[in-house]
Amino acid sequence: MAQKRALISVSNKHGVVEFAAGLSKLGYEIVSTGGTKRALEEAGIQVTGVSDVTGFPEILEGRVKTLNPKIHGGLLAKLDNPSHRLQLEEHGIEPIGIVCVNLYPFRETISKPGATVEDAIENIDIGGPSMLRAAAKNHQDVTVVIDPDDYDEVLRQLKETGEVDGLTRRRLAAKVFRQTAAYDALIASYLTDLAGEDCPESLTVTYELKDRLRYGENPHQRAAFYKNLLGVGGSIAEAIQLHGKELSYNNINDANAALQLVREFTEPAAVAVKHMNPCGVGTGETALAAFLQAYEADPVSIFGGIVAFNREVDGNAAEKLYDIFLEIIIAPSFTDEALLVLQKKKNLRLLTVTDRGGEKTERNLISIEGGLLVQDPDLLSIEDAKIVIPTKRRPSEEEWKALKLGWKVVKHVKSNAIVVANGTRTVGVGAGQMNRIGAAKIALEQAGERAAGAAMASDAFFPMDDTVEAAARAGITAIIQPGGSVRDEDSIKKADEYGIAMVFTGVRHFKH
Questions:
Q1: Neighbours of 195 (CB within 10 A)
Q2: With contact defined as beta carbons under 8 Å apart, do 334 and 313 qualify?
């Protein structure tokens, strides 16, 4: 019984004419349908229509073409099983040795502006995944090709040996199940969102490989970088690298942290990050002015760090940046003059990231051993807070500027977190401590004399008045914190004792 029949039906027609022509020269009968059949025939390739094989016409506007025993029997028959071979002969079914199918462009459809639900539904492929899964299940007898990148290797093996080796067939089958799983996951996510289901009974997420990384957090850990299938505008995953060596696992994490923080600001801002915590944040009238403020915030920790801007980097800013050892500089754009300066450092990575174009809606996914934590992103700002001022003294205009800057920054510092800031920059950051007074001591020690007249921001409430006491002794004049402790009154009294203005936001910003 002949096995030299190939079924070809593709949405992505890149390379398919050459592939089909190669199979035809090797003696394969090409079976096809719809647009693929027309494309192959126009190229002069002899094609048998699927309807000629099944004896049944396409119906329901093409929704049903290949869902037929004459097709699926040819895909699923185990050719080393005498019973299967007998049944094929009884029903006049020819086995299919090669399946070349890819799927309706569901992803591309829903990515288009203005795509309707009807458009999306019509681009959910049914016959394609059915054929692919059948062929992949039976890969002991069938070579299944879903990716045009595999055409050349399949043809090479067929020309050299007359068959595709078992390991390659298994590798191609695995790719089919990965891609159909990703396809279904995307459809499931789309329909789940349409249905408004917040926490469905099962969650399947899918990403595509962006880069294989040299290693993870440490050299002994393997790592890779995957990106959202639909793309998330303005994300590190969509960044364009203009210069420098490849990004590492830690670079990507730090760059993401810097980008998320710099976007808290509407005025020109610069953010310096080390180990996913900001070490200096500054604002100013220009990118250069903002960077100088960020640098002065902590000129030691910025060494080997990452700097992110929310404005174009020009030649003047580049001259200052050049003098410091940095791993990465991120900006919406760089002027030609800036690139001429910064590209002199061959390893310095320069990334451009476009504006996000709207509020971030992607949920946060955190893997734990045996599970996954899922939550909404922390999008609340001080404008969303219900401000309460429980102290006798209210903040001055200058103190408000410092409080707001500190509050924007502390949201992005690992908890327990304390930030000391003035109206244009941070002067002390205490991150990731096991108790709040410990974080405050670190921030105040770093601030030193600069704490006098500055503001303090805390990511969560004060469990006791010791943080207020430490702040007062350092010269802090205003504090912003969520409030909500059973001992709030102790902190309020302590603030009043020292004449400190304290603001309650009612919003906590834990970041673990």
A1: 8
A2: yes
Choose among 402, 504, 475, 446: nearest CA to 277.
Answer: 446
Contacts made by residues 114-119, CB under 8 angstroms, sequence distance 24+: 117/194
For residue 247, name the pLDDT band (cuts at 50, 70, 90). very high
Place of tokens 């409080």: 403
Task: Decide: helix, strand or coil at residue 197.
Answer: coil
Give helix then strand counts, H and E, for the chain.
18, 20
492: its two tokens: 């309020």
Pair type for strands 240-243 and 349-352: antiparallel
Mean pLDDT throughout 360-372?
87
Q: What is the pTM of this model?
A: 0.87
pLDDT, tens digit, 9 for 90 and up, residues 410-441: 999 999 999 999 999 999 999 999 999 999 99
Phi-psi region of 483 (alpha: psi -120 to 50; beta: other; left: phi over 0): left
Instruction: Check pLDDT > 80 for residue 55.
Output: no
275 counts as catalytic: yes
Cα–Cα distance for residue pair 199/187, rounded to 1 Å: 16
Distances (CA, A) of 305 to 88, 180, 294, 410: 67, 41, 12, 19
Report the pLDDT value the prediction gives residue 1, as an integer from 0 to 100: 42
Cis preceding-peptide flag for 416 (omega within 30 of 0): yes
- Check if 137 is active-site: yes
148-164 residues labelled b (16+ CB within 10 A) or e (exposed): bebbeebbebbeeeeeb
In this model, does residue 81 exceed pLDDT 50?
Answer: yes
- % of the chain surpassing 70 pLDDT: 99
Cα 365 to Cα 191, 372, 374: the distances in Å are 20, 7, 5
> Which of 210, 275, 320, 360 is labelled catalytic?
275
Other residues' Cβ atoms within 10 Å of the Cβ of residue 395? 22
Give the residue-averaged pLDDT of 3-16.
91
Return the closest-CA partner of residue 415 out of 301, 490, 508: 508
* Tokens matching residue 100: 């070349």
| Whole-number average pLDDT of the chain | 93
Q: Identify each DSSP E strand in 28-172 by its residue range.
A: 29-32, 47-49, 98-101, 143-145
Helix (H) or strand (E) holding 327: strand 326-331
Is residue 429 a contact partner of residue 443, using CB atoms and an 8 Å limit? yes
Residue type, 455: A
Catalytic one among 13, 72, 137, 243? 137
Could you count the other beta carbons within 10 Å of the beta carbon of residue 236?
A: 24
pLDDT reading at 357 higher than 80: no
